[in-house]
Amino acid sequence: MNLNDALLSDWRAKALRLEAEVRKAVVGQDRAIRLINIAVFARGHVLLEGDVGVGKTTLLRAVARAIGGAYERIEGTIDLMPNDLIYHTYISEEGKPRVEAGPLLKSGDALSVFFFNEINRARPQVQSLLLRAMAERSVSAFNTEHRFAHMLVFADRNRVEKEETFELSSAARDRFMLEIPMETPPEREIQTALMFDPAFHDTDRLIERVAPAVVPYTELNDIAEAIQASVRASEALQHYALDLWHATRTPQQFDVAIPGVDMNRLVLAGASPRGTAMLLRAARVGAWLAGRDFLTPEDMQDVFRQTIAHRVFFTPVYEMRRADLIEPLIAQILGQVAAP
Amino acid sequence: MRTRSRSITLALGLLAASTHSAASIEADNPARPFGYTIGDMVRQTLHVTPAPGQTLVETSLPKEGRAGAWLERRAVAVTPEAGGWRIDLTYQFINVPTELRTVALPAIKLQLREPERTVAETLPESPVTIAPLTPAVVLARAGLEEMRPDVAPPLIDTRPHQRRLVAYALAAGLLAMAWAAWYFGFGLRGRQNRPFARAERALRRQLAGDGAPATRREAMRTLHRAFDATAGSTLFAESLGGFFARCPWFAPAHDAVKRFFAASRAEFFGEGAAESGYDAAALLVLARQLKALEREAG
Asked: Which residue intervals of A43-186 are DSSP H helices?
């Protein structure tokens, strides 16, 4: 037990180091960095959402570099097909046709981060292949099953364009542990630095500031399990977590009210059991990063929006206004569900 | 009482008479053939009795509309009756002469169809007299001027409505007073109804018994609910800063409240409150202090 405790605190230092390294390349996004760190140690996939040019790609590249292991990326385009992830064909120098493993298979088991850029530009066929890869960390190709035990999928999606994009299906969104909205840092000094400091203009140089492989990625799965086992959830907290879950399904029973919205008709489907499991996993990692071995309601609240908001589905009449309604709904749920 | 003023039986021609018995039209003419003026309605009813095998040609029925210089046919209604048809005609005088004059309800010509041919039956016109409304020369005497002033419209009796209005107003007033009594009545009793005042009363009751951990937990929950009610949403240790900013009158209890939240966190989520030294007495002291601060703030 003691050994385990020492190991975990050792790993906590490594996790904080990872954050510190990423912060060297990405400024003003401490919250997003913390959330990604939580996802890394909860072994959950991450979907970053934000405007063009806020640093989504830079952030994910920096994290991938700090984690170490093989890193592959693919750009989502409208003509990308599932097979493009699996293999690619070309004519070799000898003039012979060659088939080689695509980005998903190339690194085999060493793949630690698979980065899917602009995921909503890819067709649903590609997304469903990714679903399996994300849920089971395996794909079937070349008559064998390929496993990537250490893979995390980082995807990003810009929310400006709607042309030639495919909205992610609810099943696809449910696979992502965290959906992290990324905004331009509001602080004036940081904005000035981003504008005038040439260091921020060359992304490749920026990424090189990050020390590579600060955590041994092959051990992450074991550590993640150890974290989940070590952080306790008391009876009162379980009660609170269940109430939070139920509040996403039947908000009206928790006196959640949004002006101008018929609460009885707002929610079509609340958070899924998988979603709540991910909420708990993420909250436990948050507690561990905070140096505690027990969960508090604040741990849950801290990741509630990022784990749950994309799993709540509104009825069609309100779904069009999702962007306006989801924040008040989440805030109201957190404000109405009581603990202890 | 309508007199049968005219009864006509028409022979259908000598040749036809030998093979067919004749059809007939009888008219119930207006009750009086005199005393009409512009705007009056005149009703005439025809009873058509066909010979066997004859049917009425519908297109030969008189049409609604202008019927000569004096009359308009307002309605034509045909109803079958025993032995034939009854035709109700309604005329209205739409014109007026300058002096008394004899005019006539128009003659009616109906066609009846037989298997091989169609025969016509005619009802001659019926004279009626129509009189002007005013003499040709208007005498300039009171009441007989050319134009009289407009008649004031008759007034509708509004007294039942007024009585109902008063009754409803009284009922609404009573209801409003009852509601106000209920609403402000609670306000007056609000002194005992404020969150921490209520919680303090509940705590005294809860902690009067044993000091078992379950009781203490229940008491802590009670105090948490009072915090939630005061803050307007659920309050957690990390949101205490905002709470004190919004409700600055609780500032004197700042440290005690922080200790309570820390103890509650340990109790419910952590190792247990045993080592934090937070017991029932401390809980009651805090509740009393908060109640006092709440009262001072009004």
From this structure: 56-67, 82-86, 103-106, 124-136, 170-175
Residues of A in contact with B234 (CB under 8 A): 334-339
pLDDT tens per residue, range A260-303: 888 888 888 888 888 889 999 999 999 999 988 888 888 889 89
Q: Which residues of chain B lie closer than 8 angstroms to A234, CB-CB?
A: 268-270
Q: Quote the CA–CA distance of B227 and B229 in Å, as a whole number.
A: 5
Number of DSSP helices (H) and strands (E) in chain B, helices first: 8, 11
Residue from the list A237, A294, A338 with its beta carbon closest to the beta carbon of B228: A338
* Residue B250 belongs to domain spanning: 190-297
CA-based nearest distance A241→chain B, Å = 12
Give yes or no for a contact between B263 and B278, defined as CB atoms under 8 angstroms apart. Answer: yes
- CB of B235 closer than 8 Å to CB of B241: no
Note the pLDDT of residue A1.
Answer: 47
Q: Which domains does chain A have, with CATH numbers?
A: 21-218 (3.40.50.300), 231-336 (1.10.8.80)
- pLDDT of amino acid B146: 66
Interface predicted TM-score (ipTM) of this complex, two decimals: 0.76
DSSP at B26: E
Residue of A nearest to B271 (CA): A294
- Residues of B whose CB is below 8 A from A301: 236
CA–CA separation, A180 and A305 (whole Å) = 9
Query: How much is the pTM?
Result: 0.66
Note whether B269 contacts A298, CB cutoff 8 Å: no
In this structure, are B15 and B105 located in the same domain?
A: yes
Question: Tell me, what's the pLDDT at A283?
Answer: 93
